[in-house]
């Protein structure tokens, strides 16, 4: 499903990733750990096609991302990938249901069906009946649940999560991670989660450590 071949990325003369290669198996929940500044978030951005490597390839479903035109890469991200960002990026002017339905509407699903699926996804993350609320009415843990619902509502093949519990207290973090694992397994999705938390990493099927020499099993 996802293969990295000899990825190299340099910023301001500093090599962040150097000839990194790895194959991720379909349906696997993988946690990536490592020291600050080693390139974990950069790696997620390269996988998503939000940034481009200086050399090497990100191959998704057998197709190099670099071989795709901009609109093709956008379509692949929109249909095959889901994203959970550390800062949530929930849109404050939209209701919770509108936030969660957004990926479906971007994929041209009918508004009524998108609303129904968004409502069902909110219920799955423990926010049943809250669809008409706005983000300002929610706690940090509830906002993260909305972010998870939005990332999974279109049933992506691959979920990318950057420090998804970085702003949460330990009890809320465990609840969010349990929910995340449950939902990706129910959807048959694969997931790559960047985290500094050993407790978070324990929820994954596999833990990898990113170092200057590459990805290694923890």
Task: Describe the fold and architecture.
- Helix content is 36%, strand content 27%.
- The chain has helices at 40-48, 70-80, 96-106, 111-124, 140-152, 170-186, 198-201, and strands at 2-11, 14-24, 29-33, 55-60, 63-64, 81-84, 158-162, 190-194, 206-211, 214-217.
- The protein is built from seven helices and ten strands.
- It has a single domain (2-217), classed as Rossmann fold (3-Layer(aba) Sandwich).
CATH fold assignment: Rossmann fold
**Helical proportion?**
25-40%
Our Rg estimate from Cα atoms comes to 17 Å
Shape: globular
SSE order and pairing:
Layout: E1 2-11, E2 14-24, E3 29-33, H1 40-48, E4 55-60, E5 63-64, H2 70-80, E6 81-84, H3 96-106, H4 111-124, H5 140-152, E7 158-162, H6 170-186, E8 190-194, H7 198-201, E9 206-211, E10 214-217
Parallel strand pairs: 3-8, 3-9, 6-7, 7-8
Antiparallel strand pairs: 1-2, 1-4, 4-5, 9-10
Helix pairs in contact: 3-4, 3-5, 4-5, 5-6
Jot down its keywords.
single chain, alpha/beta, Rossmann fold, four-stranded antiparallel beta sheet, 218 residues, 27% strand
How do you describe this structure in short?
The protein is α/β, with parallel strands linked by helices.
């Amino acid at each position: 499903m996802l293969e990295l071949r000899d990825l190299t990325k340099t910023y301001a003369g500093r090599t962040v990733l150097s000839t990194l290669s790895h194959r991720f198996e379909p349906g696997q929940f993988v946690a990536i750990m490592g020291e600050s500044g080693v390139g974990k978030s950069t790696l997620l951005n390269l996988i998503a096609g939000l940034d481009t490597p200086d050399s090497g390839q990100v191959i998704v479903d057998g197709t190099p991302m670099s071989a795709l035109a901009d609109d093709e890469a956008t379509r692949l991200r929109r249909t095959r990938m889901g994203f959970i960002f550390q800062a949530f990026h929930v849109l404050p002017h939209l209701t919770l249901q509108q936030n969660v339905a957004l990926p479906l509407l971007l994929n041209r699903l009918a508004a009524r069906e998108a609303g129904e699926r968004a409502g069902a996804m909110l219920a799955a993350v423990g926010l049943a009946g809250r669809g008409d609320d706005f983000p300002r009415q929610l706690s940090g843990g509830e906002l993260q649940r909305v972010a998870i619902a939005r990332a999974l509502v279109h049933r992506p093949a691959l979920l990318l999560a950057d420090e998804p519990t970085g702003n949460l207290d330990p009890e809320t973090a465990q609840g969010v991670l349990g929910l995340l694992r449950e939902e990706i397994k129910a959807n048959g999705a694969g997931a790559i989660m960047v985290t500094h938390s050993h407790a978070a990493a324990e929820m994954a099927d596999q833990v990898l450590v990113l170092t200057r020499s590459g990805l290694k099993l923890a």
